[in-house]
Structure formats: structure tokens, C-alpha cells
Design goal:
Elements: H1 9-14, H2 32-38, H3 67-76, H4 80-89, H5 94-97, H6 101-116, H7 122-147, H8 154-166, E1 169-173, H9 180-190, E2 195-199, H10 206-210, E3 211-216, E4 221-226, E5 233-237, H11 244-247, H12 251-256, E6 258-261, E7 264-267, E8 273-278, H13 291-294, E9 297-301, H14 308-316, H15 333-344, H16 350-365, E10 369-371, H17 375-391, H18 399-410, E11 415-416, H19 418-423, H20 427-435
Parallel strand pairs: 1-8, 1-9, 2-5, 5-8
Antiparallel strand pairs: 3-4, 6-7, 10-11
Helix pairs in contact: 7-8, 8-17, 15-17, 16-17, 16-18, 17-18
């Protein structure tokens, strides 16, 4: 074993601290190649029996941990032989190396906590299971409430609820008459929050959206009158009928939850969520949304025409002018914040994070895609997958969650290459071909 000169006790303690718990999971099939390249070799394969004291209450088999993560801790307690090796190099370092056993055991306990902090234990999984079962029941109740008035669109409803709980913005894109506004209104009514609706038109001005300062002659002062953007939920109906000047007025609001008017920055309410509807870009009187604004929408939902059975049910309710009025408020601001926080605690393993990054990188390097997804798309995919997993009653994300959300989270962020356009491919088809080359993590995801 090669000798190592440690300058002080602090460096000695640092050698037993695992800076990244992902090394433990090097045995995972998905990480096997990376583990072989990074672990290295050493004769110190396992901890001694004495060094394993304090680990006995843990169900993991620590004798099977990767070698490099524990080799330094083994060197600390290998007995007089190891100490003498350091002493041969520099006798002045010997007193610093001879630390009390209580200090060594404390460091080993700290190492154990570092190893396990990113991985749910059996007790954590059992207790979390009950909490996420309740989350799943609440999510299903919310979905059923909207499903009673938006017929035959269960997946679209679930996607919208996922983005809503994740704190993201929603873009409903399809042809006129497919129920986009009805769904947006139903989502707004489901939340017992302040919400405003604004109809985007070609003559709309940014001040109509953000607000304007009005001069009062009596007081000789300007008073700011807030626009409809100062709310919790903003329903932007037919957003692509407004000019780019008005569309850009939402960029700061959607990204930073604030607006700048007359040289003054004003914060918006929390949460602030935009639910926008958009008609097909080939219709007259529409302006395509800039890529910067499309990237700010967490996901894009396409409804499509209703099924035959749903169409029959809709016609039987022909006397109801606005079915979304039947949705009763169920989510308060505090309840929505609690669901969001619970979803953020869902565990994402390093193999899942790596998988998401590879998907985004594949969208950038494909010959069919001129402009791939930004890192904001990867963030949206992680956050939505956490909600998606919690809605299934799980406290961990699996590859199936990522695959279910890849299209709605990434498809509106890409631009087709001339080759794909000439071939007649849609963005969804081009994205599917680009991502099918990415290997799916197998085995344990934690």
C-alpha cells in the first residue's frame, strides 16, 4: 500500500468523509462502467471487524462497499503497522495520527450518516409510503373532479395537475374548439386562489398586462395601478394572438415572479402560475411565441379531439354553457405549497439524473433537431417526475416516470432541422427518434 503524508488532523478526518454518496451505488448495472473507471485499485478491500463497530445497526452490508470509498478509513485503524509507516516518513506527524478511539468512532459514525443520507432506509420507506399514499389519493381526487367536466382527457388533466403542483407554467396548444379554455378555467377554479383572465389580442399593450402609473393632479403624484399579472393564477387565453412586444412582457414575470414597470421592480404573488392557451401557428392573426418564452413553460399539453364516447356525453350536456363552473375549489395556497414540498422530497437517484441529462443532450446532438432543449427542460423533467412518482404513491422516481413526461416537457423546446422538415417529421416524431438511442437505467434506481 502506498504511503501518504497527512499534514494535520483535519486532513486525516477529511479522508474518511465521503463527499459523494453516489460511490456506494457503483455496483448498480447502470454505473458499472463508470465505477470501473473511477474506483481504482487497492489492497485494502474491506474494513476490519473493529472498524465496523457502530455500523451494526445498519441493514446494509458494508463489507461489500466499493474499495476506494473505505480505504482511507481502513488506514486510520489498521494498527501500529500503518502508523509506523507514517512515522517512518516524518516522526513529527506521529502525535497527530494517534487520536483517541472516541474521535475515530465519531468520525466513522459521521461517515455512515454521509453514506446513507441520500438513500431512503427501510424505516423511511415505510413511513414515507403512508404519506405518499395520501398524496396519491389527493391527486386522484383532484383529477376526478376535473374529469367530470373535461371528458375523455385524463392524461391531459394529469399532466396539468403535475405542472401545477410542481410550480410550473402550462401551455395548452391545439386547434380551436378542443376544450383548452375549459380545462384552463377548471384548473383555475380547482385552486382557491386569486386568478385573472386576459384575452390576448393584436392591439393589447404591455401596460394592459403589467399595469400603469397614473398621474393624479390633486395630489401631484403618480399612482401605480397593477395589471392582471398581479395574481396567483393568470389565464392567458390565445396568447399567440398578441404581438411579440406583449409576449415579451411575460418573460420576467414567468422566470423571476416579478415585473419591472417605470424603473421599479415589483414582486408578484406566490405562487404565480401562468396557464396559457395557444391556437395552431398556421391560423391567421397569430404570432409564434419566441423560443425564450416557450422555454419558460414547464410542459406543453395537446388535447386533440374528443373520443366518440366523450363526444356523445358532451352533446348530452349541451344545455350547460360552461361546464368548468361545476368544479369546486379544493386547493388552498397552503395546501398547494404542502403538496409541492412533499413532491420535492421524492428521491431521485444519480442514475435517474444521469438519464435525464443524457436525454437532453441527445436532443441537442440529433441531426433532426436544429435546437435542442436547454437545462431548464431538464429541471422541469426532474420536478415533474417527482410529482408523477408521488401521484403513484412512491417516494422515489423510476425511469418510467421520466419516459411518461419526456414528450410534454421537451417537445415544445426544440426546433426541427431543415432535414426533418423536408422529411415531413413532426417535432414529436423527431424527438422520439433522437431519444430512443439513450439507454434506460436498469436494476436498482437508488
Amino acid at each position: 500500500m502506498s504511503k501518504r503524508k497527512l499534514n494535520d488532523a483535519t486532513t486525516l478526518a477529511d479522508t474518511t468523509t465521503l463527499s459523494d454518496a453516489t460511490t456506494i451505488r457503483a455496483a448498480s448495472p447502470f454505473w458499472s462502467q463508470r465505477a470501473d473507471a473511477t474506483i481504482g485499485t487497492s489492497d485494502d478491500t474491506h474494513l476490519s471487524h473493529e472498524d465496523c463497530q457502530g455500523f451494526d445497526d445498519d441493514p446494509m452490508d458494508h463489507t461489500q462497499l466499493p474499495k476506494q470509498t473505505l480505504v482511507d478509513a481502513t488506514r486510520l485503524t489498521a494498527g501500529g503497522q500503518t502508523v509506523s509507516q507514517f512515522a517512518d516518513e516524518d516522526q513529527t506527524q506521529l502525535p497527530q495520527l494517534l487520536q483517541p478511539d472516541t474521535t475515530r468512532l465519531s468520525r466513522l459514525t459521521s461517515t455512515k450518516q454521509t453514506i446513507l443520507k441520500s438513500k431512503p432506509t427501510q424505516d423511511d420507506t415505510h413511513s414515507a409510503g403512508e404519506a405518499y399514499t395520501e398524496f396519491s389519493n389527493i391527486f386522484a381526487h383532484l383529477q376526478a373532479s376535473i374529469g367530470q367536466v373535461i371528458l375523455g382527457k385524463n392524461r391531459a388533466i394529469r399532466l396539468c395537475l403535475t405542472a401545477l403542483i410542481a410550480g410550473g407554467h402550462i401551455l395548452l396548444q391545439d386547434e380551436p374548439g378542443t376544450g383548452k379554455t375549459q380545462l384552463a378555467q377548471a384548473l383555475s377554479r380547482l385552486c382557491d386562489l386569486d386568478y385573472r383572465r386576459i384575452q390576448f389580442t393584436a392591439d393589447l399593450m404591455p401596460t394592459d398586462l403589467l399595469g400603469v402609473s397614473i398621474y393624479h393632479q390633486a395630489s401631484d403624484q403618480f399612482t401605480f395601478r397593477p395589471g392582471p399579472v398581479f395574481t396567483h393564477l393568470l389565464l392567458a387565453d390565445e396568447i399567440n394572438r398578441a404581438t411579440p412586444k406583449v409576449q415579451s412582457a411575460l418573460l420576467e414575470a414567468m422566470e423571476e415572479s416579478q415585473v419591472s414597470v417605470d424603473g421599479q421592480t415589483r414582486p408578484l404573488s406566490k405562487p404565480f402560475i401562468v396557464i396559457a392557451t395557444q391556437n395552431g401557428g398556421d391560423l391567421a392573426g397569430t404570432y409564434p411565441l419566441p423560443q425564450a418564452q416557450l422555454d419558460r413553460f414547464t410542459l406543453c399539453v395537446r388535447l386533440g379531439p374528443p373520443s366518440h364516447e366523450a363526444s356523445v356525453s358532451i352533446l348530452r350536456q349541451a344545455n350547460q354553457a360552461c361546464r368548468s363552473q361545476q368544479v369546486a375549489p379544493m386547493l388552498t395556497a397552503s395546501k398547494l405549497a404542502a403538496l409541492t414540498q412533499q413532491a420535492q422530497n421524492v428521491y431521485c437517484s444519480d442514475s435517474i439524473v444521469e438519464y435525464v441529462i443524457r436525454l437532453v443532450e441527445a436532443s441537442r446532438h440529433s441531426a433532426l433537431i436544429e435546437r435542442g432543449s436547454s437545462i431548464r427542460g431538464a429541471l422541469g423533467l426532474i420536478r415533474c417526475s417527482q410529482v408523477w412518482a408521488a401521484a403513484e404513491g412512491r417516494n422515489f422516481v423510476i425511469p418510467d416516470d421520466i419516459q411518461a413526461l419526456t414528450q410534454p416537457v421537451l417537445v415544445h423546446r426544440i426546433e426541427l432541422s431543415p432535414q426533418a422538415q423536408f422529411s415531413g417529421l413532426t417535432p414529436s416524431q423527431a424527438l422520439s427518434q433522437a431519444l430512443k438511442q439513450v439507454p434506460v437505467p436498469r436494476g436498482e434506481v437508488d
